[in-house]
C-alpha cells in the first residue's frame, strides 16, 4: 500500500486580504510547483522519513525535527481519538518549494502530508477535520494559526477565510483571464519575522481603507468586474512595513505596472512577488523582467501561473521515481 499526494504553491494575502485571502498556483508550463509526499508501509521503525528535491538540502537533518513528523503525530492523535490505532509509516518528501519563500512552502508539505496520511489510513478524517489539523500544524511554524496558505493549497482556487460558525473557508470566483506571475528571488524571509515587524495597532483611516478595499475586491470578483478587482489589490496592512525586507520590490513594481501588469504585491510574507496580468504577452514580459531583475541568486525562479482550481491531488508514484 502506497500513496503519493501533490499540494500546490499558494499566494497568501493576495495583497488586499491579510491572513484572510489566498490562492493556489499552477504554472502554465505544466511544471509541478508544490511538494509531493509519499507514504508507504515499508518502515522498520515507527516513523521513517527521507527527502529529495531541489530544496531538500534546507530541511533539518533529524527527521523528527521535520514538520512531517508533527503531521504524522497529529494524524495519529486524531485517529486515536476515533479509536483507530495506526501502524508504522515510511514517508518521502519531495521538497520542491523553497522554505521561507512566501509560496506557502510549509503549507504545501503539511497539506500533502496530512492528506497522504489520511488516505493511507483509509480516509477516516473528513475535509474539515483535515483542514483544521493543517491550520494547527502551520501555526506551529509561523507562530499563529492562519489558513490563507493551507486552505487554497488543500481546496484549490481563491479562498476567503470565512472562519465563521463551522465554515472555515469559501471559494471566490477566479477571474478567468488573469495570469499570475510569481517570482521568488532566492533569499529567505521567515513568516514569524515578517509578522513581528508589523504594528500592534492601525489607524482608523487604515482600518476603513482596508475594509473598503477588501469588500470591493470580493464584490468585484462576484460582479465579474476584473478591472475593479485588480485596482483594489492594495495592501495597507503588511506591505508598507515588509517591503524593506524585499530588495528591489519597489523598482520591480514600478516596471511591472509600466509593462501592463494590473496589480503587484508581496506573496504571503515574502520575499516572493506576484503580479496580476490579463494578457499572456504582458505576463511573459513581466516574467522575463522578474527573471532578469528580481532574482538575486541561482535559487530564485519565476513562473507564469494560473489559479490551480484543484488543490491537493494524487499523483502516480511512477511519475516521481
Ligand atoms: N498571511 C501570513 C502573513 C503568511 O502574511 O504573515 C501567509 O500565510
From TrEMBL:
GO terms, biological process: threonine biosynthetic process
Primary subcellular site in the record, as a coarse category: cytoplasm
A UniProt-annotated Pfam family: GHMP_kinases_N
Annotated Gene Ontology cellular component terms: cytoplasm
Reactions the enzyme catalyzes: L-homoserine + ATP = O-phospho-L-homoserine + ADP + H(+)
Keywords annotated in UniProt: Amino-acid biosynthesis, ATP-binding, Cytoplasm, Kinase, Nucleotide-binding, Threonine biosynthesis, Transferase
Keyword tRNA-binding in annotation: no
Enzyme Commission number(s) from the entry: 2.7.1.39
Pathway annotation: Amino-acid biosynthesis; L-threonine biosynthesis; L-threonine from L-aspartate: step 4/5
Record has DNA-binding as a keyword: no
Binding site for ATP: 98-108
SUPFAM superfamilies in UniProt: GHMP Kinase, C-terminal domain, Ribosomal protein S5 domain 2-like
Residue ranges occupied by any GHMP kinase N-terminal domain in the UniProt entry: 77-157
Domain GHMP kinase C-terminal per the UniProt entry, residue ranges: 237-293
Family, similarity comment: Belongs to the GHMP kinase family. Homoserine kinase subfamily.
Function: Catalyzes the ATP-dependent phosphorylation of L-homoserine to L-homoserine phosphate.
Official protein name in the record: Homoserine kinase
Species the sequence originates in: Neiella marina
Amino acid at each position: 500500500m502506497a500513496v503519493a499526494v501533490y499540494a500546490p504553491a499558494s499566494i497568501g494575502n493576495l495583497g488586499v486580504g491579510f491572513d484572510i485571502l489566498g490562492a493556489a498556483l499552477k504554472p502554465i508550463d505544466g511544471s509541478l510547483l508544490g511538494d509531493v509526499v509519499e507514504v508507504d508501509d515499508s518502515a522498520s521503525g515507527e516513523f521513517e522519513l527521507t527527502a529529495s528535491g531541489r530544496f531538500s538540502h534546507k530541511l533539518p537533518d533529524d527527521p523528527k525535527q521535520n514538520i512531517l513528523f508533527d503531521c504524522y503525530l497529529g494524524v495519529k492523535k486524531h485517529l486515536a481519538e476515533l479509536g483507530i490505532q495506526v501502524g508504522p509509516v515510511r514517508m518521502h518528501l519531495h521538497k520542491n518549494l523553497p522554505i521561507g519563500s512566501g509560496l506557502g512552502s510549509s503549507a504545501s508539505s503539511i497539506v500533502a502530508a496530512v492528506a497522504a496520511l489520511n488516505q493511507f489510513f483509509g480516509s477516516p478524517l473528513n475535509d474539515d477535520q483535515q483542514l483544521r489539523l493543517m491550520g494547527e500544524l502551520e501555526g506551529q511554524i509561523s507562530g499563529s494559526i492562519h489558513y490563507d496558505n493551507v486552505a487554497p493549497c488543500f481546496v484549490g482556487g481563491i479562498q476567503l477565510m470565512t472562519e465563521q460558525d463551522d465554515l472555515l473557508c469559501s471559494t471566490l470566483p477566479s477571474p478567468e483571464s488573469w495570469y499570475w506571475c510569481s517570482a521568488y528571488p532566492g533569499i529567505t524571509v521567515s513568516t514569524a519575522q515578517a509578522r513581528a515587524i508589523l504594528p500592534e495597532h492601525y489607524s482608523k483611516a487604515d482600518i476603513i481603507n482596508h475594509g473598503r478595499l477588501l469588500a470591493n475586491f470580493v464584490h468585484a470578483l462576484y460582479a465579474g468586474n476584473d478591472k475593479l478587482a485588480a485596482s483594489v489589490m492594495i495592501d495597507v496592512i503588511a506591505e508598507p512595513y515588509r517591503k524593506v525586507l524585499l530588495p528591489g520590490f519597489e523598482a520591480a513594481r514600478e516596471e511591472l505596472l509600466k509593462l501592463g501588469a494590473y496589480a503587484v504585491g508581496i506573496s504571503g510574507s515574502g520575499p516572493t512577488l506576484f503580479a496580476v496580468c490579463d494578457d499572456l504577452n504582458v505576463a511573459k514580459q513581466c516574467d522575463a523582467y522578474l527573471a532578469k531583475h528580481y532574482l538575486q541568486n541561482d535559487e530564485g525562479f519565476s513562473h507564469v501561473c494560473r489559479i490551480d482550481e484543484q488543490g491537493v491531488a494524487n499523483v502516480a508514484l511512477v511519475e516521481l521515481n
